[in-house]
Write a structure and sequence with these properties.
Layout (H helix, E strand, L loop, with lengths): L6 H12 L3 H22 L1 E4 L3 E8 L2 E4 L6 E4 L2 E8 L1 H7 L3
Antiparallel strand pairs: 1-2, 2-5, 3-4
Helix pairs in contact: 1-2
Length: 96
């Protein structure tokens, strides 16, 4: 089972499912990603009804450890995007 999807695979699926041209589906998906990043830069949160919400959170600097050699390293403070699935989609996935 494959865990990750590429933009190319998503564009190919849009092309196959909706009968739109491959170039349009690639352009549409690229534009959606650009739109999402612009919203998150300005608003810090984006909710897509019945799908889920994306938001930016600030993580503090902390000490991390390499599991192989057990050496400690400082992990810098950074912003990360988190995704929370909607209850409706969660129920649909779990067939409830």
């Amino acid at each position: 089972m494959k865990n990750n999807l590429t933009k190319k695979e998503i564009s190919q699926t849009l092309y196959e499912k909706f009968g739109i041209s491959l170039s349009f589906s690639q352009s549409f998906f690229d534009d959606f990603i650009l739109f999402l990043s612009e919203i998150l830069k300005n608003e810090k949160k984006f909710n897509l009804k019945n799908f889920g919400s994306f938001k930016i959170i600030q993580k503090k600097e902390r000490v991390g450890r390499n599991p192989i050699d057990k050496k400690e390293h400082i992990i810098k403070a950074r912003k990360v995007i988190v995704f929370k699935i909607s209850n409706k989609l969660k129920k649909e996935i779990n067939n409830e």
